[in-house]
Amino acid sequence: MKKFIQKATITGAALLLTACVSAENQQNDGITLKNCAIQETIPGAKATGAFLTINKSDDSQLSLVSAKAPSVTSHVEIHEMVMKNGTMKMQQIKSYPLKKGHNVFKKGGFHIMLMDMQKPLKVGEKHELTLLFSDGSSKQCTASVKSVKELTPKGMKMNHGKMMNHKMQHTSMKEGKMMQDKMKHDMKKEMKKAMQDGM
Ligand SMILES: [Cu+2]
């Protein structure tokens, strides 16, 4: 009997160990990647954006922590677009908490940034994109290189208007119209620059 318990314990420990090991670098079954795409490189730019929809099927806590695109570059970051002093800027984030359902990475919003690229990407090329998650698992998709036009959301301009209105609600009435005009101007400039950088 004692021997049996010992054996059972060892088997249990071995199973646990196997489970831990296989969680590392395992394909995450709760995650589905859709519409994987990379924007063509704009002449002169060394960076471009990668976009996709990450669908999470369960309520588990999971974050996107990094991404890889070895055939494009070794320098990949996760970016968000933020309003700073009335202008739109993109900045790196360490992780992106995934909600249940669709998590959309698109132009003008959260995106994967491919940086320090050695050669330009042309429409029609395909590159492997690997996403790495907080539990050590990963998921891969094949991203097609698409044109700037194809990847720009149709309602993008409208969304910016919405964002601006939201910001205005937090601004005192005094600062009013002047700031709104300045913001419009700066945002146009920043968005233009960001687009040139590949966003
Ligand atoms: Cu970016």
Would you spell out the secondary-structure blueprint of this structure?
Layout: H1 2-23, E1 31-39, E2 48-56, E3 63-68, E4 75-84, E5 87-93, E6 96-97, E7 101-105, E8 111-115, E9 126-133, E10 138-146, H2 148-151, H3 156-169, H4 176-196
Parallel strand pairs: 1-10
Antiparallel strand pairs: 1-2, 2-7, 2-8, 3-6, 3-9, 4-5, 4-8, 9-10
This protein binds copper (II) ion (CU).
Copper (II) ion (CU) binds next to strand 8.
Name given to the CATH architecture of the largest domain: Sandwich
Main CATH class of the largest domain:
Mainly Beta
Question: What small molecules does the structure contain?
Answer: copper (II) ion
Low-confidence spans:
16-23, 158-177
Strand content: 35-45%
The arrangement of helices and strands along the chain is HEEEEEEEEEEHHH
Write down how many β-strands occur, each being a DSSP E stretch of 2 or more residues: 10
CATH topological fold name of the largest domain: Immunoglobulin-like
CATH superfamily of the largest domain: PCu(A)C copper chaperone
- As a whole number of angstroms, the C-alpha radius of gyration is 22 Å
What's the N-to-C terminus distance?
Answer: 67 Å
Number of helices: 4
Q: What is the domain total for the residues?
A: 2
What structural category do the secondary elements indicate?
A: alpha+beta
